[in-house]
Amino acid sequence: KRAIYVGGLAEGVNSQILRAAMIPFGNIKSLDIPMNYSEGKHRGFGFVEFEDAEDATEAIFNMDGADLMGRTISVDMAQANQLSKLSNTRTQAIWSSDEWFQQHASGEMTAEEKEKRNQQQKDQVELRN
């Protein structure tokens, strides 16, 4: 496993700060800090995927319980259900299967896609106000 979970992030931590804290342990493949768009800030945790599993292990060993911007962070291996949240963890392009084309060519959206579109529209309205 190469992806780690980083919890307990201070409000001031952004992707650049998290990257700077983790880059000493190895090359980073992807980094994600989920946002709470209704509040306009992140949710207090993030995921970092390293290119090598040894680098992830080293980051956990050195950073779990460390201080980052005045907060003690917890660092552990990301669970399998959390890995799907990382944007770069796909092994194939989404359009590499006929299923994707059939779904999108017909113009039909799944319930999840409709909900996501509605949320994006609400967010745009809030930003205008």
Radius of gyration from CA coordinates: 17 Å
Q: Tell me the overall shape.
A: globular
Q: What is the SS-derived class?
A: alpha+beta
Major sheet description? 4 strands, antiparallel
List low-confidence stretches: none
Number of strands: 8
Helix content: 25-40%
Q: What is the arithmetic mean of pLDDT?
A: 81
Portion of residues in beta strands equals 15-25%
Total helix count? 5
The ordered H/E elements are EHEEEEHEEEHHH
Topology overview:
Layout: E1 3-7, H1 15-22, E2 28-32, E3 35-36, E4 41-42, E5 45-50, H2 53-63, E6 67-68, E7 71-72, E8 74-77, H3 80-83, H4 98-105, H5 111-128
Can you walk me through this structure?
- This protein is an alpha+beta fold.
- The protein has five helices and eight strands; from the N terminus they run βαββββαβββααα.
- It has a four-stranded antiparallel β-sheet, with helices on one face. Strands 3-4 form a two-stranded antiparallel ribbon. The chain has a two-stranded antiparallel ribbon with strand order 6-7.
- Strand 3 (35-36) and strand 4 form a beta hairpin.
- 19% of the residues are buried.
